[in-house]
Amino acid sequence: MNTDLLEQKFNVLPDDLKREVLDFIDFLMTKRKKEKIQSQFDFTWEGGLADLRDDFNSVDLQHHSMEWR
Hints:
The protein has helices spanning about 5-10, 15-40, 60-69. The chain has about 70 residues and is mostly helical.
């Protein structure tokens, strides 16, 4: 990408549009970070209820979770 061209175009903008461009850049960066965070889901919680396997089945746990809400 030619940053010189970008800089030239940016410099001819009035101040209010420069602020808008900067806000848009911030928006794009935030959006990218959110996408990255969402795609990095892990399963570290997997097996966390293994000790309850003999006492409850998935339906029982589902009913209990509704009571906890």
